[in-house]
Amino acid sequence: MKKIWILTRKEWAEVFKNRFVLFTVAFMPILFTILPLIILSQAAGEISAMGDVPPEFSAYCDSSSGGECAQSFILSQFLILFLIMPVMIPATIASYSIVGEKTTRTLEPLLATPITTGELLAGKALAAAIPATVATWGSYLLLLGGASILLESAAVIAVMVKPLWLLAIFGVAPLLSIAGVSVAVMISSRVNDPRIAEQISALVIMPIVLLMMGQAFGYVMLDQSILLWIALALLIGDAGLLYFATQFFQRETILTRWK
Amino acid sequence: MTEMVFTHNLSKQFGELTAVDRLSLSIPAGEVFGVLGPNGAGKTTTIRMLSALIAPTSGQARIAGFTVGEQDRNIRKNVGILTESPGLYDRLSAERNLGFFAQLYEVEQVSAQVERYLRMLGLWERRHEAVGTFSKGMRQKLAIARALLHEPQVLFLDEPTSGLDPEAALLVREFVAELRQDGRAIIICTHNLDEADRLCDRIAVFKARLLALDTPAALRRQLYGRTVVFHLAQVEPRFAQAVQAKDFVQSAEVMDNKLVVTLDDPDVHNPALVRALVELGAEVRFVGEVRRTLEDVYLRLVRNDDE
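^ Those are the sequences you sent over. The predicted structure of the assembly is below.
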């Protein structure tokens, strides 16, 4: 455990001095915090002026106000966007931390130490998963704080502290970050360019994008029970992904095949 | 003397390619052992197998008493390795780089040990600077410090002076010479034959398989015998013929007004040769021994293998 933490701290010291990684990691939380606040504050007035609540919003209406319904609907869309963050951020960090070790030729001295493959991958995974989870939680708290200041409706703010949101942010997001890291580790073990690794790893967000589109077009509505099933599936999936990530990381192949 | 490195028929295959073929050697503590060979000869593969980074295909190896393939973590704890490229974290400081590796190697007094090696290699004043700003020589010194932090019993140095300016190379060589006093086994892979000649107690010439293994002086003797040059006032072909007729002479030829003679033992046979030449009317002005370089030895071994 000690070596895992030693490696994690080194990763943070190293990776966060890379401006590109730092920008990628910081950009998404800032965007996903500011964007909803702007849209929410604009949408309330416009939808209220339309009179009747559009039928696709009705499922989100606990109150009678059209504006509040619209805001609740928009928030539910952003909830899914918030789930992209814990997948994308670790994909960037993990891609750079593993492929980066290959390109800077630091992997061989690292593998020559008495660190096990499990410790190595756990250290790298934590270095990527912790910032992603903290960024997601921080963004959520900032959004909640911002919404409390900018939005007048207590009902809309209450949507964000419902069990659905809390489960998504504090339960599903960390599980998604582990999935993102595991996929990034597997891909990074096989490619030699961090950007290629990052781009391929980014495909992990596809199911989340599909979910968001399904909800936008009314095919699916993310509720607590669906989210619970997703969490369960992720829990099982993460165990499998972590196992495969360890299997994919072949010390000898990595040392002898990359140039 | 304690055996630090032992291999028996150690081999490594990469698909169809045999990178290392039945390598058998034994290196005691306190020896500086040179590994010479052309590019692609399997030197780095051998180092990687002996430092438990990659697994042998067949054969046995023991490092510092631990068996490769069975006690790999113990081997890594007792082996220091300077890889072909320094492999340092450019964005981290010199101190942070060493501190990180010292912790992974479970060094007890991390700060003290890091300071010791930074001072020893003249990098203490620049300990807070990012390694990316260091010159090639400084990076190489830092990588050597990293290989030594945990006081390994066996040290592998892959091209330790490659790309260094003469001053930095000299510093590294002097440092390696000092290390031998500590009783470690030091294995140096190098293309710098002069360096190997100066530093190494024994040398293995290697090209997938072991071509030769001995002290530099013995390798020279085995391949070339000892060569003596007779500087004469006037060289005539009959002098060479007369010398060649002696049973202790391997070869005699005339080159640029000199008679070049290869023989078993000049200390014993030179007086007889001088006497014979004088009797034939030769005016001997000067007699000297030709010292064959390790490069001559190496090139002959590798070329013979090619043929």
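Chain A has a mean pLDDT of 81. The CA atoms of residues 168 and 227 of chain A lie 7 Å apart.

Shout if you want it in another format.
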